[in-house]
Amino acid sequence: MMEKSANPGEALPGLFASALEYLVDTGQRSVLFLDVMRRRGEQYREHMAETVPHVLNYEIELIADGRSLERPVNYGLVRVTPPAGVEIDPTRRPFVVIDPRAGHGPGIGGFKADSEIGVAMKAGHPCYFIGFMPEPMPGQTIGDIARAEGTFLEKVIALHPDADGKPCVIGNCQAGWAVMILASLRPELFGPLIIAGAPLSYWAGVRGKYPMRYSGGLFGGSWLTALTSDLGGGKFDGAWLVQNFENMNPSNTLWSKQYNVYSKVDTEADRYLEFERWWGGHVNLNAEEIQFIVDELFVGNNLAAGRIKTSDGEVVDLRKIRSPIVVFCSKGDNITPPQQALNWILDLYRDVDEIRYYGQTIVYTVHETVGHLGIFVSGGVAKKEHAEFSSNIDLIDVLPPGLYEATFEAKSGDTVRADLAGGSWIMRCEQRTIDDLRAMGGNSPEDERRFAAAKRVSEINLANYRNFVQPWVRAIAPPQMAEWMRKLHPLRVGYEVFGRDTSAMKALATEAETVRESRTPAAKDNPFLKAQETVSESIVNMLDKWRDTQEALSESLFLSIYGSPALQAAVGIDPNANPSPRPEMSEKHRKLLDARIAELKAKIGSGGLRECGIRALLYVGMARGMVDERGLEALRRMRRDDAASRMSLSEFKTLVREQFFMLLLDQEASLAAIPRMLPQEMDQRHAVFAAIREVLSVGGGGVSGETAKRLDRVAQLFGVSGDAEDSGGSSFSPQAKAS
Known about the structure:
By secondary structure, the chain is α/β, with parallel strands linked by helices. It is built from 32 helices and 13 strands. It is 54% helix and 9% strand.
């Protein structure tokens, strides 16, 4: 090495060789990259020529066509055919996945083998998918779609009369809030809901992050949405929604996405084309649909506040949902950050007790890093969070009412009773409070008034547009203009320009084939490749700084403009009022609640061994503040092996909830009643107590502290205190089955 540094001229031939190697490599990569763009354009044209373009990775069977309904919609219900080697258990509850209609076509929930649909089928569940066609039916509205999806769920329920529970429905992104609306109107149709990346409280957020929530105010409200729909001949081009997503990450849009393919063209082309098939499948919405979405949700934030009404006057109240709600969000999601996914809970409930008063079970989990699309398409997320939700949906369905956070622990050789956990992770549902959600951050009252002012400005601007501008726009915008606007949208042009069957594209395909045959990539340590990476990183850093500057400016402008006391006074915002008051419990619900409380108190002394066992288990388990999936699996095996009980999952859920509420209403009276409810046969008492101990022990961590004290008290109530340390029986013994 000393000799080389003493005579730098000797290194020149090596440098020239590296330069020549790099020039050959970059020339070949350029041809192959352009060919990937050609294939992307060709794929786009073929995809959009399909009658129902989708990206599902499974065979499907049409069950119901929404176009044939009384109020036709461009939605349909299909049954997903399980791939070879996957066995479906017809007694397990079906899963129904609904994809977002947010500018793209359907199928992202079943995009890969490791997907929401894939992991649900691996867990043995029949799977269905609700998708849509690119063009809306004339006059269809959000309400029409909700009614159609209700009809689809009725068909799924009818197809599975022996299923152990109502369908589990997964709503991705915008489909999430649509599912929540329907579940509040038709709660009888739903099993557990999994709401993934869905913005339910759109104003929510923290300063310095997630600037998309300011967009409506900075554009003056939803009048621009109405203008775009009018220029589109009564339709809103979904490509504009996709463009909004693209604008949020300019370094990826303008550079990284394409550069990644260019720099790794030998390995990344297929993955890139697979994703672009979905990303470029733009769909349209009726003007009425997009106006509802922007006015009621994005700008108005009316969903959680209970200010949305159906066409027949029924108020949409999310507190009417009776199924467990699983909310999946991520800190890395700049489309639906955790505050927008979860703050509807703060908007509706004062504390956890109020959640319980409404009989609701809410489970949430917050990923640390995954982005918005990763929630639906990431294989790692599917194998972990979605796989655990699918495997343990019965656990979630029988949880006592309250607020929980789902946490996941990897299985290892030291995991206690690992055989009771089906996947690679152990899922626990840990009790949380409203304060845990507040700790994630949110708006101050002053910020809420800013958003309320932006909402009022939007209403004024939209009214002025409709009164003074809309008639002229509609008069001068012929249908041909709308079609040309869609064709000339920048996103579509990017696909179309390379997708045409021209002589230039044919020559490019031929040249690319030649290059593949003689491909000579540069060595990984080539200095010019390293320089290329350095330049790329500089471009990304520059674009990221530009984005950060734009976001900071947009936040500053929004806060300044809509924080103006003069503007707020002009649009009627009371500086002393809460712009987002929490909906009060209705008198009707309060009367029902009082009647239910009286009924449960009267039943505290009713029941037998089964009620005593569940009541005692809940009492001891409350000390832990969490439920482990292994404990539920132990209970599920007991129920399965107990042929005499014939208790369905629904009946078991009702039993658990009743005993839980009795303990909440009067714990001492509920415990004092146990000895009187127990049978005289000590063998049965021993067996149930052994079952309680087994369920508690399989969760790991041992039985100690307050849990041990409560277990000892239960032993005394059961009259088996002498067996508290070694109760002998097993929950899987014949004696336990007899219980």
